[in-house]
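Justification of computing resources. Each target in the renewal requires a structure prediction run like the one illustrated here; the chain below, 170 residues long, is used simply to show the kind of job we budget for.
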Amino acid sequence: MPIVYCPYIFVDNDAAFMRGHIQGFPKKLGQVFQTRSYAAPSPAAAPVAAGSRFGASCSAHGERLDDVRVTLRETIGDPTTVFNRPTVMRRYFPRLDGKAYDTPAVDQLTLSLTDNLHVVDLWSGDAEVRLPEVPGEEMHTLAPLWVGRGFRFGMSYTVTDLRILEDYGA
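Resulting structure tokens:
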């Protein structure tokens, strides 16, 4: 079945980091920067409108790991045309006992079960992605062969459970 899988999620606090690891999200500590928009119009506010450009970047260990840009072109009225696949994650917790390195405490492929999905101000447009090679990181190996549409939106949801698709440790 078609799924969503995210190989990296950078967060800037330990609570988000731990919660993500427990659920199977591959979180790493870093700094995330993004263009902000404000409700009050001004020259400093990036309006959420056709032609506006939004950007984001992430850094870790003092190195910039990515640069992404989207130029808004059109609104998307039905979020299910974009967000229509379940999220699959890998929960993996190794053992530190030298005699048990090859038998992790948890090794599961899971499906995230969610409720209360809300997507607001969903726009698509032209996108640019740059993943430079950074010593000690491997994100550049996931650089896209081509870039399709980019998106800008606000989103929230509740993770209510996980379904274990495969338990490799059993």
